[in-house]
């Protein structure tokens, strides 16, 4: 046997053995790494065998030349083809009025065919402008526990939702406690941040990712997706990254029993901008 | 199995003898760089095969169930039926994980092979007349591939891919006038919506694969019909093609390559962990892990989003969301330029000839320079998309890295483009070294007693492409 | 005896007594115990170690200097965390504190912790973290919700900006995990008992320790970093191997 012969034979033998190995591994319950390695040997064995067979054992015809068959198109034939096509088109065009109506009908059908897209789902309406937060909504954490003024220490943060809507995608908010004298909020906003507890929407205004990073020593909220960074002391204005707008703030107040409640919905619509965000709800 | 009788029987019924004879004898050039497209083809075939298996197990439902499978850290968690089905496949179905991982690795390598193939076609000018249609079909395949990948890795409904879906929703929202409407209608309401997973499944296993099959078939049929390009060489002309007949050598070589491709992909699938969704947990809208990147073929878009400045405009009451430019307009321009390239080049070079020769990149310095600039820009964008991971491993400050990348996005393409242009031009214009290809030489003994050399032009030097009148 | 000699004798007696008193007083003064501290071996060791390795930056009374912050109220958890993870002492002030082999052994660390508890009381104590009490399922949920944003879904860490990297948690002991949560070192926020209870810490630590040896059914973990590593492998290993095959199989002309 010549050398390529032996390589091909060997490859196929390896493939056969590996395939049996696969049966064995599978019957014994399977194991991912073994399965991968044995598949590699089976498939690769067949592949290498075929490649070497084709390249080395088959007749070495590598320089056969053929015409590409692109004959210059006969003038007459081209003329004939064009005339055949245009003949039909002209026949339609001859009746200008009718063909215009046909175009109109086709266009109208096309427009009508777009309508089922509407059936796919809900129109947004005014939902982008509102969340589930209302005046008096109690703040609860992921576990549904009511959040009080004792829950957080300085430099702590937690994710909060309106009571009854734990896990809500648009209502999610992050509650942070800072040293009260560090806050630089305007007066009307500062009222909604009692005892250094300030609450912002957790939905990044860049592309909507949840703001999972709180860099406590720098008092910055950062987004894991594209690194938008917001300063929590001055109303979550963006200080770095592609986010264009500050995070909406949730103004909160302390209830009689020490629990935290919202004074209303967020100060702006949450999340990234949409075209009529400045208009307000319809 | 395949006997003469069988062939004659088929031929008899279909009148196929001339078709069979002609096509099996067709020759194909076998330069190694012409095989890159086949890598993509075979990766796609494996995607179909493994994907069929996965489709037998996947449940496209967002309805919640309590996880009771063997993976301890998720015991008792509320997860979607979709996520649960993927965990079941991973931990409880024999060969489930190797199939899933092979499928995902095949997708990554499919896209990588497409890019390698596309670069080869670009830098050798193989998209020129008459092959512009093949190029357009190819651009369609790139876009479809990205779509297939994105819908595919979003199916498990895990935390990481869910964050990606949120970004997609926001990108849709940024489109003026119709954005919010489109996003809400397609997802079934405000994010996360109620309708998404079954739609992703329809896209991923039916609509997009159909598109890819159609585009790929047309692409292959045109290549077959027009015959493949080839590099210049002795005995080669613009009207002929030189190579190996399809049957048996070329076909078997190709099938062999296919099996080797399957082997490499299954090796990856068994030995290299990919998309370990059990670490990410089920998707919840209020959590987001870091780092978070999409699959590599969307990394350029991720880089654009990370580097783009925070510009947002409101013009006449219409707010153009910050995402609109980097996520819709710029990619739109990129793919339009890509698709239009054969026509743009023909226009600007004035070359409307019929080209069956593939060029060496040095033969078209301007195109190669522009291509190198584009590649350099994409490299910068891919680096930007991975910035936090790279910063961790290189121990550099990520925000400083971003600044460097922003400058690089302008500087590097210019440097790469100009350098490539100059090198190509220099290589092209430099006279050929006689040592490189020995010339045919006649040595004649003179009557005076010495020897003289008679230099002849190299035998078989290919004539330049003949330019056909349009 | 003359009057002069009697005076001289009195003076010399006074002087001698005075000398004894002064010298004795000096000796006694130098042997005085440190203010408010029992004179013990361990305490002495803690003070010696602190003054030798820490006081240049943190001050002799842990009051801070231009080179390092005050440790008043930082808590034993902070001292223990920094020392057991080798973050402190820093090689040079201004260095980024990163995990290193600890410079002191456990006994020495205990001594320093005890000493600082005296001179800088208050702050979070060293928590008791018992992974055997923890629940993996709760731990993974808590970790994903509270920690994965900086430390990654599998706890391998990531850059977080501000020049810092949230570190890989695999080398951390259960106590260190609890300590870090309670003190919020570097840019990390603080998680006190109301935020993450003792049982929560048990579960998170249990989960992180479980992650050390489990979870890689799929094969090589590639740093558990996700799509970036996977893309690199797809190109280098996947396309790379196939490229080699293609080069070997096809012709070069």
* Uncertain stretches of 5 or more adjacent residues of chain B: 458-470
How many individual helices of chain C? Answer: 10
| Strand residues, percent of chain C | under 5%
Shape by Cα distribution of chain B: globular
Morphology call of chain C: elongated
User: Based on the structure, what is the oligomeric state of the protein chains?
Assistant: heterotrimer
Main sheet specs of chain C: 2 strands, antiparallel
What is the number of domains of chain B? 2
State the CATH topology of the domain at 127-215 in chain C: Cytochrome Bc1 Complex, Chain D, domain 2
* Structure summary, number of beta strands of chain C: 2
Strand content of chain B: 5-15%
Under the CATH scheme, which class of the largest domain in chain B?
Mainly Alpha
3D structure, described in words:
The complex is a heterotrimer of chains A (282), B (470) and C (253). By secondary structure, chain A is an alpha+beta fold. Chain A has 5 helices and 11 strands. Among the domains of chain A are: 55 residues; 135 residues, Rieske [2Fe-2S] iron-sulphur domain (Rieske Iron-sulfur Protein). The longest helix of chain A has 26 residues. Chain B is mainly alpha-helical and 470 residues long. Chain B folds into 2 domains: 330 residues, Cytochrome Bc1 Complex, Chain C (Up-down Bundle), CATH 1.20.810.10; 70 residues. Chain B is globular and about 100 Å long. Chain B starts with a helix and ends in a 15-residue tail after the last strand. Chain C has 253 residues and is mainly α. Helix content of chain C is 52%, strand content 3%. Chain C has 10 helices and 2 strands; from the N terminus they run αααααααββααα. A two-stranded antiparallel ribbon of chain C has the order 1-2. In chain C, a hairpin with a 2-residue loop joins β1 and β2. The chains are: A alpha+beta (282), B mainly alpha (470), C mainly alpha (253). Chains A and C meet through α2, β3 and β6 of A and α7 and β1 of C.
């Amino acid at each position: 046997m010549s050398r390529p012969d032996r390589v091909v034979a060997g490859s196929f033998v390896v493939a056969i053995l590996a395939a049996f190995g696969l049966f064995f591994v599978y019957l014994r319950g399977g194991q991912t790494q073994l399965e991968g390695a044995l598949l590699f040997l089976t498939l690769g064995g067949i592949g290498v065998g075929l490649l070497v067979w084709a390249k080395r054992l088959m007749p070495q015809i590598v320089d056969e030349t053929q015409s590409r068959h692109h004959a210059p198109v006969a003038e007459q034939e081209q003329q004939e083809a064009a005339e055949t096509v245009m003949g039909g088109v002209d026949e339609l065009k001859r009746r200008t009025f009718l063909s215009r109506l046909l175009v109109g009908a086709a266009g109208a059908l096309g427009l009508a065919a777009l309508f089922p897209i509407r059936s796919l789902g809900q129109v947004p309406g005014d939902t982008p402008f509102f969340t589930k937060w209302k005046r008096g909504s109690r703040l609860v954490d992921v576990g549904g526990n009511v959040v009080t003024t004792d829950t957080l220490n300085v430099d702590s943060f937690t994710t909060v939702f309106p009571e009854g809507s734990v896990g809500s995608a648009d209502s999610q908010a992050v509650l942070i406690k800072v040293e009260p004298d560090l806050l630089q909020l305007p007066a009307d906003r500062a009222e909604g941040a009692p005892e250094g507890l300030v609450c912002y929407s957790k939905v990044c205004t860049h592309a909507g990712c949840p703001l999972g990073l709180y860099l406590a020593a720098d008092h910055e909220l950062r987004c894991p997706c594209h690194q938008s960074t917001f300063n929590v002391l001055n109303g979550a204005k963006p200080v770095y990254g592609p986010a264009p707008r500050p995070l909406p703030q949730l103004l909160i107040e302390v209830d009689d029993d020490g629990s935290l409640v919202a004074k209303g919905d967020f100060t702006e619509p949450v999340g990234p901008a949409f075209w009529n965000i400045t208009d307000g709800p319809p | 199995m395949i006997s003469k009788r069988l062939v004659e029987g088929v031929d008899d019924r279909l009148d196929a003898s001339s078709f069979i004879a002609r096509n099996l004898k067709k020759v194909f050039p076998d330069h190694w760089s012409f095989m890159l497209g086949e890598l993509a083809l075979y990766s796609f075939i494996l995607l179909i095969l493994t994907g069929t298996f996965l489709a037998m197990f996947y449940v496209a439902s967002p309805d919640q169930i309590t996880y009771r499978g063997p993976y301890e850290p998720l015991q008792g968690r509320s997860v979607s039926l979709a996520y649960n089905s993927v965990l079941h496949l991973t931990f409880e179905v024999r060969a489930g994980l190797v199939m899933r991982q092979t499928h995902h690795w095949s997708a990554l390598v499919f896209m990588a092979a497409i890019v390698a193939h596309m670069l080869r076609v670009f830098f050798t000018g193989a998209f020129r007349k008459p092959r512009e249609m093949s190029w357009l079909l190819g651009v369609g395949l790139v876009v479809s591939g990205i779509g297939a990948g994105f819908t595919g890795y979003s199916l498990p409904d895990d935390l990481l891919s869910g964050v990606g879906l949120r970004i997609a929703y926001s990108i849709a929202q940024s489109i003026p006038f119709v954005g919010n409407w489109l996003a809400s209608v397609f997802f079934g309401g405000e994010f996360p919506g109620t309708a998404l997973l079954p739609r992703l499944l329809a896209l991923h296993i039916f609509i997009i694969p159909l598109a890819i099959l159609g585009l790929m078939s047309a692409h292959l049929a045109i290549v077959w019909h027009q015959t493949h390009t080839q590099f210049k060489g002795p005995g080669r002309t613009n009207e002929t093609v030189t190579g190996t007949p399809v049957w048996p050598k070329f076909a078997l070589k190709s099938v062999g390559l296919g099996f080797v491709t399957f082997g490499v992909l299954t090796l990856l699938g068994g030995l290299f962990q990919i998309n370990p969704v059990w670490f990410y947990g089920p998707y919840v809208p209020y959590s987001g892990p870091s780092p978070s990147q999409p699959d590599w073929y969307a990394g350029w878009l991720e880089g654009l989003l990370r580097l783009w400045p925070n510009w947002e405009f409101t013009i006449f009451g219409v707010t153009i969301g910050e995402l609109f430019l980097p996520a819709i307009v710029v990619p739109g321009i990129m793919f339009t330029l890509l698709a239009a390239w054969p026509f743009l080049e023909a226009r600007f070079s004035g070359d409307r000839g019929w080209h069956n020769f593939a060029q060496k990149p040095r033969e078209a310095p301007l195109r190669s320079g522009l291509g190198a600039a584009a590649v350099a820009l994409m490299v910068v964008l891919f680096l930007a998309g991975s910035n936090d991971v790279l910063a961790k491993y290189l121990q550099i400050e990520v925000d400083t890295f971003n600044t460097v990348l922003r400058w690089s996005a302008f500087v590097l393409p210019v440097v790469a483009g100009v350098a490539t242009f100059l090198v190509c031009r220099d290589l092209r214009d430099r006279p050929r070294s006689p040592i490189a290809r020995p010339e045919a030489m006649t040595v004649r003994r003179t009557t005076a007693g010495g020897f003289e050399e008679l230099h002849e032009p190299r035998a078989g030097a290919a004539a330049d492409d003949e330019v056909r009148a349009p | 005896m003359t009057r002069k000699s009697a005076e001289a004798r009195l003076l010399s007696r006074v002087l001698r007594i005075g000398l004894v008193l002064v010298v004795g007083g000096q000796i006694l003064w130098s042997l005085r115990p440190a203010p408010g501290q029992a004179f013990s071996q361990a305490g002495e060791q803690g003070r010696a170690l602190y003054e030798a390795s820490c006081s240049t930056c943190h001050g002799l009374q842990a009051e801070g200097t231009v080179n390092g912050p005050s440790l008043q109220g930082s808590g034993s958890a902070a001292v223990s965390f920094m020392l057991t993870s080798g973050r402190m002492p820093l090689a040079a002030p201004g260095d980024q504190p990163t995990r290193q082999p600890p410079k002191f052994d456990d006994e020495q660390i205990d001594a320093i912790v005890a000493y600082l508890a005296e001179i800088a009381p208050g702050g979070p104590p060293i928590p008791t973290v018992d992974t055997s009490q923890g629940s993996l399922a709760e731990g993974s949920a808590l970790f994903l919700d509270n920690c994965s944003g900086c430390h990654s879904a599998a706890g391998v860490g990531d850059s977080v900006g501000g020049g810092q990297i949230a570190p890989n948690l695999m080398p951390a002991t259960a106590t260190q995990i609890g300590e870090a949560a309670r003190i919020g070192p570097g840019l990390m926020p603080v998680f006190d008992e109301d935020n993450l209870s003792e049982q929560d810490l048990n579960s998170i630590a249990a989960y992180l320790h479980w992650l050390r040896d489990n979870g890689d059914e799929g094969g090589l973990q590639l740093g558990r970093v996700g799509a970036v590593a996977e893309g690199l492998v797809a190109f280098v290993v996947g396309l790379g191997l196939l490229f080699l095959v293609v080069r070997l199989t096809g012709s070069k002309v």
